[in-house]
Amino acid sequence: MLELHSIYKSFGGNQVLRDVSFALDNKTPITGLIGPNGSGKSTLFHVVMGFYSQDKGRVLFNGQHLDTLPPEKRCHSGLSCTFQDSRMLTFMTVLENLTAIPTPQHGESLVKSFFSPLLVHRQEKEIQEKARDILELLSLSSLADAPAGSLSYGQRKLLEIGRVMMTDPQLVLLDEPTAGINPTLIQSLVKILETLVQRGMRFFLVEHNMPLVSQLCDRVLVLDAGELIFDGCATAAKKDKNVIQAYLGSDGYVEA
Ligand SMILES: Nc1ncnc2c1ncn2[C@@H]1O[C@H](COP(=O)(O)OP(=O)(O)OP(=O)(O)O)[C@@H](O)[C@H]1O
Ligand SMILES: [Mg+2]
């Protein structure tokens, strides 16, 4: 599905990613990406999504080279992401934040609206229904008409996932989806991810909450100072001496 070949990225003299290579396949529902603060996890996601261009190396998705594609085209190839900081539009309603996401249907609308307004009307109805289904899954239906700016921090994180779901992605990159949200909401999020996995969606998850990584991820990749130092199951990661060393040398932790 996703392939990274020898990715390098630096900011000025700061070498942030060094020779990072791995492949994610469709068989692993949720892959974790962990590592101490500043190890390059978010940078890696930004490179995959096209928000940063790498200095060297290649990124492929389903065999297609992504390197020359802008971020919006990468989304239409089945790849999507949420950000460490929320990007929703606070002045729009919760529902509008979903219906405003460009979907493949939207892309056809301009041409079709000229020839077939009825078809466009039907597509708009489908988009509304899809958005309402997503709000139902996220338990946000009662807030559909509320301004998105009035949502709690945790609810905003859920809405971010809803925005991603509108594009029917095959693989979703989630950067710290549980940061700053309460344990009850974390468990809701786990259920939502499990439902989406059953529907065929796959996830690549950056997360500092180690028990959650162990619970959710079948495979874990560990970055340390921009280098991939481990690739395997969560249980083995916790015992790996390089991983332990990386965390001991930082402010992070490894679950006992
Ligand atoms: N746009 C940028 N310009 C300059 N330096 C950057 C930029 N983005 C990231 N960096 C640097 O790259 C390094 C890795 O940052 P990154 O955000 O990828 O780490 P991270 O693993 O996501 O950390 P955290 O767990 O704290 O979110 C840091 O030294 C950071 O300062
Ligand atoms: Mg980060």
Main traits of this protein?
single chain; 256 residues; alpha/beta; Rossmann fold; 2 domains; 6-stranded mixed beta sheet; 4-stranded antiparallel beta sheet; 23% strand; globular; binds adenosine-5'-triphosphate; binds magnesium ion
Would you tell me the structural class of the helices and strands?
Answer: alpha/beta
The counted number of beta strands is 10
How many domains? The number is 2
Overall geometry comes to globular
Radius of gyration: 19 Å
Mind telling me the CATH superfamily name of the largest domain? P-loop containing nucleotide triphosphate hydrolases
Quaternary state of the chains: single chain
Structure description:
With about 260 residues, the chain is of the alpha/beta class. The protein has 2 domains: about 1-80 and about 170-250, P-loop containing nucleotide triphosphate hydrolases (Rossmann fold, 3-Layer(aba) Sandwich), CATH 3.40.50.300; about 90-150, no CATH class. Helix content is about 40%, strand content about 25%. It has 10 helices and 10 strands. It has a 6-stranded mixed beta sheet with strand order 6-7-8-3-9-10, sandwiched between helices. α4 packs antiparallel against α5 (about 115-135). The longest helix has 21 residues, at about 115-135. The chain is globular. The protein starts with a strand and ends in an 8-residue tail after the last helix. About 35% of the residues are buried. The model has no long low-confidence stretch (mean pLDDT about 90). Bound molecules: adenosine-5'-triphosphate (ATP) and magnesium ion (MG). Adenosine-5'-triphosphate binds near residues 16 and 35.
